[in-house]
Amino acid sequence: MQNLTNKTALITGGSKGIGYGIAAALLAEGMKVAITSRSQKAADEAASELAKIGKGEIIGIEADVRNFDSQQNAVNQVLDKWGQLDLLVANAGIGHFASVEDMTMEQWHETIDTNLTGVFYSIKAGLDGLKQSKGYFITISSLAGTNFFANGSAYNASKFGVTGFSQAAMLDLRKHNIRVTTIMPGSVATYFNNHQPNDADAWKIQIEDLGQMVVDLMQMHPRTLPSKIEVRPTMPPGA
């Protein structure tokens, strides 16, 4: 089992939801973690809460995955502060759901630019650091990355893209001893699509479950790579 103490991570979109859950799990293992948000205020507030875990170090960075220079700046801040990048989690994502006829150009581009192009920008910005550390690149896709549904044209396209991109990147980057995994969750209890987590979400995947999954991947012997992981609630309503 790999010791994670003092290893470093950058998590995009880490101020809430899945990214927040992953950050909490890594901090509990003694890692140094940077989370990003498009709002410095949101990043700082989340970092302040995460700091209460009391093991690793945490910083919040304002960054927008839709802008490559912004992503490069986030990576540079991690390298300047801690000198290495061991894990990059491309988690930032949004969802616009509408029929093709009702989907606006702005909604389409925001979805694709955030969910797909943002993943590409993230690995391009972090690649040199991950090469140096022989690190790990984890993308957060979705079961919507293999299962299409009505009103999901933009979201399905983005997540199908993330799934395919991640698997191709895995083949490209393993020669550098960089491991690549995409995690594909089903229903998760988060704030996604303006949802407010509540007691009725008890059946859903919880953010701490995905945090534990990332820890398990990091601790796995590097000779073994779960390259694509589908994650479902055990007992959804009506099952």
Walkthrough of the structure:
The chain is built from 6 helices and 7 strands; from the N terminus they run βαβαβαβαβαβαβ. It is an alpha/beta fold. It has helices spanning 17-28, 40-50, 68-82, 105-133, 153-173, 207-219; strands spanning 8-11, 32-37, 57-62, 87-90, 136-140, 179-185, 228-231. Helix 1 crosses helix 6 (207-219), helix 3 runs parallel beside helix 4 (105-133) and helix 4 packs parallel to helix 5. Helix 1 links the parallel strand 1 and strand 2. A 7-stranded parallel sheet has the order 3-2-1-4-5-6-7, with helices on both faces. It has one domain (8-231): Rossmann fold. The chain is globular. Belongs to the short-chain dehydrogenases/reductases (SDR) family. InterPro entries: KR_dom (IPR057326), NAD(P)-bd_dom_sf (IPR036291), Sc_DH/Rdtase_CS (IPR020904), SDR (IPR050259), SDR_fam (IPR002347).
Q: Can you give keywords for this protein?
A:
7 strands, SDR, 15% strand, alpha/beta, 42% helix, 7-stranded parallel β-sheet, Rossmann fold, Ketoreductase domain-containing protein, 6 helices, KR_dom
Helix content: 40-55%
Q: Report, as a whole number of angstroms, the end-to-end distance.
A: 36 Å
Question: Would you report the number of β strands?
Answer: 7
Q: Note the total helix count.
A: 6
- From the spread of the alpha carbons, the general shape counts as globular
Strand composition percent: 15-25%
Highest CATH level, the class? Alpha Beta
CATH architecture: 3-Layer(aba) Sandwich
SSE class: alpha/beta
Number of domains: 1
Instruction: Flag low-confidence runs.
Output: none
Quick one: biggest sheet? 7 strands, parallel
Pfam families: adh_short (PF00106)
InterPro entries: KR_dom, NAD(P)-bd_dom_sf, Sc_DH/Rdtase_CS, SDR, SDR_fam
Family: Belongs to the short-chain dehydrogenases/reductases (SDR) family.
Domain Ketoreductase: 7-189
